[in-house]
Amino acid sequence: MPRIFQTPEALHEAVGQELGKSEWLLVDQARIDLFAEASGDHQWIHVDPERAAQGPFGACIAHGYLSLSLVNLFLPQIIEVQGISMGVNYGCERVRFPSVVRVGSRVRGSALLVSTDAVGNGVQAVIRVSIEIEGQERPGCVVDTISRYYPA
Q1: Which residue of 49, 99, 139, 143 could cross-link 130, Cys pair, CB 3.0 to 4.6 Å?
Q2: What confidence tens digit (pLDDT) does each residue in 110-120 have?
Q3: How far is residue 38's CA from residue 32's CA, in Å, rounded to a whole number?
Q4: How many CA atoms lie within 13 A of 116 on its CB side?
Q5: Phi then psi for 99, rounded to 5 degrees?
Q6: Mind giving me the DSSP string for 89-101?
Q7: Does this model's pTM top 0.85?
Q8: Fold observed for domain 3-151
Q9: Residues 6+ apart with CB under 8 A from 45
């Protein structure tokens, strides 16, 4: 269940706080293959299980940008801002891929509210999302997302 903020302005009070975690998601070969089709990245480390088994990671791995794209799936599971006319993704800062996500791994998002700023009549929030890999110490992706929320 997401952490609910009644208004965009309520975000200011939560700066520096952990916002929560999403549900776990299995990263299977079908998801990796779909991302390869969508992105045009068919590198063998992602889509050739036989060759990848002999490669440096011992199996196919998810694209780094697939891990990054999961932020859009996980954030609504972690945070909900109410009393808005719209929320928009404004961008990202400092994207890193500290660890590979092997096929068959389960991942989830965890989020920290880094900062907020008033922007026009809205609120801009920088939320650091880490894509955790079950059973591993290092995340598959860490990104500072920038979202803008405009009041209703």
Answers
A1: 139
A2: 999 999 999 99
A3: 10
A4: 17
A5: -145, 150
A6: EEEEEEEE--S--
A7: yes
A8: Thiol Ester Dehydrase; Chain A (3.10.129)
A9: 52, 55, 56, 57, 60, 61
